[in-house]
Write a structure and sequence with these properties.
Helices cover about 20% and strands about 30% of the residues. The chain has about 450 residues and is an alpha+beta fold. It comes from Opisthorchis viverrini (Southeast Asian liver fluke).
Length: about 450
C-alpha cells in the first residue's frame, strides 16, 4: 500500500509497505519508519537528525504510531523480512497459501468420468435428425420432425412412428453434414416405432456409422448411467446424461408394453433418438416425456422385435416398402397385401394416439409446471402426442387434451381407449382442453 497526501500524512512522501500476497488478508506487517527533515526534504535517523526543528519530535512520534498500527495482525504468522535498503521502509513477504493436491484415487475417479464423453463421441455420428417431405400446393416443403439412428450397414434407421406419421419419404441428416433421402419402410402404431431405409448406394451404406442394439435388458438396473442423444428443438448433436430411473414402467398401453424411465433430459425433437448405455449400446428409443427429468424410452427388446417384423414384411412384398390394404401401394405400412401382419394375425384398429393414464400425481405435476387446467382433473387419459394423418389428427385432437369419456361413458385409464378403438369402427370422445369441455363425435378408426 502507498500512503499519499491525506491530512498530515501528505508530508510522508515515499512511505510504502509491500506485501507479496495481497489476496491473503491474514498477515502481520512490521515496518520501521524514519523521521524526515521536512525543511531540507531528506531522510533523517530514527531518533530524529533535526530534532530541533518544529517537526522532528512530532514526525518521530507519528512514525512510531504508524508503525504500531501497521504491526496489528489478524494472524499469528510472522512475516519474513527481505531487507531494507537506503533507509526506505522494509518490504515484507507473506507466507504462501497451501496448494490443493488431489489424491491419486480422486484423480482416477475424475478420469473415469471421461467415459461419458467418449461414449457420446463414438455414438453421435450414427445419430440422425429427420425432416419430412410434405407436398404443398405448388411445391414441396420440409418440416422438422425428430431424431433417429442408423442400425446396420444396409442403411436402416430407427425412429418413432409419430415422427414420420404416414409420410412416404423423409430426409435424413447426419452429424457430418451429409443428407440422404429416405424411404419409410414400416410403421407400427401400437409400439410407436418406424423403420426407414436410406436411398443410397450400397457402398455408401456400408461405410455409414451405426449403433449396436444391446443384447437385452437383463444387465440394466435402476441407477445405471445413460445418454440420450438427438436433435431437441432443432439443435443437432445434443447429448444429455442421466440414470435409469425405473424399468418395466406401465403407462397403460393396450399391448402391455413396458417402458424405461430415465431422468436424462428428453424434449421435443429428441423423439426417435437412442438411449445409450456406457458400453455405447442402444437400450431404448426415446419416445415421450411427462416433465423435466421424467422421460420414457421404448425398450430394446421391443425395438428388435419390430425391426425383424418390418424386414420380414418388406421381404415378402419384394419392394422397398410393404403394401397397405386400405391405402395407396406407396404408403408406409407394416401390413402385408392381405391385410394381416407378417405373423398372420388380423389387423387391428387404431386412432393414432400416444397416451398416458392421468393419475392425480401426474395431474399435480403437470399443473405445477404451468398447466393449471390439469389441477382439477382427477381421472382421464392424457394425449401425449398424435401421429400425423391419423384418424385422431384429422378429427382435430391435440397433444395435451385429456379424454374423459367415450360415447358418453367416463373412462379412467388408457387401456379403455385402446380397447374401444380396436373394437369399434366409429366412436365419440369427450375431452378437456384448457379447462373447456369439447365433444368430438363420430371419429372413424382405421386398421393397422
Amino acid at each position: 500500500y502507498s500512503i499519499w497526501g491525506r491530512s498530515v500524512l501528505r508530508l510522508f512522501k515515499g512511505i510504502s509497505v509491500k506485501c507479496f500476497q495481497p489476496h491473503n488478508p491474514l498477515y502481520r506487517v512490521s515496518v520501521a519508519l524514519p523521521t524526515i527533515d521536512y525543511r531540507h526534504n531528506r531522510w533523517g535517523s530514527e531518533s530524529g537528525q533535526h530534532s530541533g526543528t518544529p517537526y522532528g519530535f512530532h514526525l518521530t512520534a507519528l512514525g512510531l504510531l504508524t508503525g504500531l498500527i501497521a504491526s496489528r495482525s489478524f494472524d499469528e504468522e510472522e512475516p519474513h523480512s527481505v531487507g531494507q535498503r537506503n533507509g526506505f521502509p522494509k518490504i515484507v513477504q507473506c507466507a504462501e497459501a497451501p496448494r490443493v493436491v488431489l489424491h491419486k484415487e480422486r484423480q482416477a475417479a475424475i478420469r473415469s468420468l471421461e467415459v461419458v464423453a467418449d461414449v457420446a463421441q463414438e455414438a453421435q455420428p450414427a445419430v440422425v435428425s429427420i425432416t419430412s417431405m410434405d407436398k404443398g400446393f405448388l411445391a414441396r416443403h420440409t418440416q422438422s420432425t425428430g431424431s433417429g439412428f442408423i442400425i446396420d450397414d444396409a442403411g436402416h434407421v430407427i425412429t418413432n412412428a409419430h415422427v414420420v406419421g404416414y409420410r412416404t419419404n423423409v430426409f435424413v441428416h447426419l452429424s457430418d453434414g451429409r443428407s440422404f433421402p429416405g424411404r419409410v419402410l414400416a410403421v407400427d402404431m401400437s409400439s410407436d416405432l418406424a423403420l426407414i431405409r436410406l436411398d443410397v448406394k450400397e457402398k455408401i451404406a456400408k461405410a455409414l456409422p451405426q449403433l449396436a442394439l444391446a443384447p437385452d435388458l437383463k444387465l440394466v438396473r435402476p441407477g445405471h448411467f445413460v445418454l440420450a442423444l438427438g436433435s431437441p428443438l432443432m439443435l443437432a448433436n445434443s447429448v444429455t446424461v442421466g440414470v435409469v430411473s425405473a424399468l418395466d414402467r406401465d403407462l397403460g398401453h393396450s399391448e402391455g408394453l413396458k417402458y424405461i424411465q430415465t431422468d436424462a433430459i428428453i424434449t421435443f425433437g429428441n423423439s426417435g433418438g437412442p438411449l445409450v448405455n456406457l458400453m455405447g449400446e442402444v437400450i431404448g428409443v426415446n419416445s415421450m416425456i411427462a416433465g423435466t427429468g421424467v422421460g420414457f424410452a421404448i425398450p430394446v427388446d421391443q425395438v428388435r422385435n419390430f425391426v425383424q417384423m418390418a424386414l420380414q414384411a418388406a421381404a415378402r412384398t419384394g419392394k422397398s416398402g410393404p403394401i397397405g390394404s386400405r391405402r395407396d401401394a406407396g404408403d408406409p405400412h407394416i401390413l402385408t397385401e392381405s391385410g394381416t401382419t407378417p405373423s398372420g394375425a388380423p389387423a387391428r384398429r387404431y386412432l393414432g394416439l400416444v397416451m398416458r393414464t392421468l393419475t392425480p400425481e401426474l395431474a399435480f405435476e403437470l399443473g405445477s409446471r404451468g398447466g393449471p387446467q390439469y389441477m382439477n382433473v382427477t381421472e382421464g387419459v392424457l394425449i401425449h402426442s398424435i401421429m400425423r394423418n391419423s384418424p385422431a389428427h384429422r378429427a382435430g385432437l391435440m397433444a395435451g387434451d385429456v379424454i374423459i369419456a367415450i360415447d358418453g361413458l367416463p373412462i379412467t385409464n388408457a387401456q379403455q381407449v385402446y380397447a374401444a378403438a380396436e373394437n369399434r369402427e366409429e366412436l365419440s370422445l369427450t375431452i378437456l382442453r384448457q379447462g373447456q369441455r369439447i365433444e368430438f363425435p363420430n371419429i372413424r378408426t382405421e386398421k393397422t
